[in-house]
């Protein structure tokens, strides 16, 4: 159940995109000219070397290469990156190693190259299989490229692959949303991320919001889509993640179980528990210019004991599996008595149930997750 104390996950951020999507609030930067990808790989390694002081001789349990668009990097560069990482920190032989890919930036040879470089899981940013929806989302691929990329993933010797899909899109109706899911199910990925489009500040959609489905329609889309996925063998194990049995994303499970992880690359975040029980969070320099000048760490700070219960449950209650009480103590170094009042309040409001070993979020708690988490503020 618990991640061994000698293991850790690693997140690697690749900051460049061909085009910035209007809904995206991730740290991504539009290509104005071809970056020096070799130099960036060099700085990622130096960044990791500086983070070793936080790690207490741990072994890497999972790696996630996200972005941005990591598939702009060649397989040769990814191989060099993973090889150097393994020289600095040992990678478990069965570690899950994921790379994100956009459908327009890959072909079968690149997928094979990533597999040969050590990648065993690819996450493909499809978002929709309908060209009109892709256009409104500012995506640079079309539906044919999305289907082709997903089929490529089937033809490569990977442990797993994921398709990212969105719902609640501009002017989307139920038939549109179910069409995307049916197309994905036909491709038969072991893992599906299906999440609702939200309007974030500091995005183009934030300044010029599109017309989105109303709450009643969103609920109907979710209910029918969820049932369709369940009927086709997908289990919902997290708020927006579905998987066939034994294909849950191990890297994300570590996040939601409040495990430790390093973050290298522009704007990457890390969370590392020290031997004295202090939890340190790290944030790396956001802009490639500063990062490529060797300025990696923007700031680091210790999470206060007062904030730990909220941070723990903010992550843990995204998962639909039971939350072991022992895990709270192991991850936060706080006694259960610290949160007796909040737990009682959550139980009285039917947000969670409990037995001797576990807490379990209820269906009511899933619907009112923000209200549940506010109890721990």
Describe the protein.
The protein has 377 residues and is of the alpha/beta class. The protein has helices at 37-51, 75-88, 108-117, 131-136, 143-154, 174-187, 204-207, 215-231, 250-256, 288-291, 308-316, 325-332, 340-348, 363-367, 369-374, and strands at 7-14, 16-17, 29-30, 59-67, 91-101, 121-127, 160-167, 191-196, 235-238, 241-243, 261-265, 269-273, 279-284, 297-302, 323-324, 352-354, 358-361. The protein folds into 2 domains: 7-255, Aldolase class I (TIM Barrel, Alpha-Beta Barrel), CATH 3.20.20; 308-374, Arc Repressor Mutant, subunit A (Orthogonal Bundle). Helices cover 37% and strands 24% of the residues. β4 (59-67), α2 (75-88) and β5 form a beta-alpha-beta unit. α2 runs parallel beside α3 (108-117). The longest helix has 17 residues, at 215-231. The mean pLDDT is 94.
What's the short story on this structure?
The protein has 15 helices and 17 strands. It is an alpha/beta fold and 377 residues long. Helix 1 (37-51) runs parallel beside helix 2, helix 2 (75-88) runs parallel beside helix 3 (108-117) and helix 6 (174-187) packs parallel to helix 8.
Question: How many structural domains are formed by the residues?
Answer: 2
Largest sheet: 9 strands, mixed
What's the mean pLDDT score? 94
CATH superfamily of the largest domain: Aldolase class I
- CATH secondary-structure class of the largest domain: Alpha Beta
CATH structural architecture of the largest domain: Alpha-Beta Barrel
Radius of gyration: 21 Å
Percentage of residues in DSSP E strands: 15-25%
Protein structure class: alpha/beta
* Fraction of residues in H or I helices: 25-40%
Low-confidence spans: none
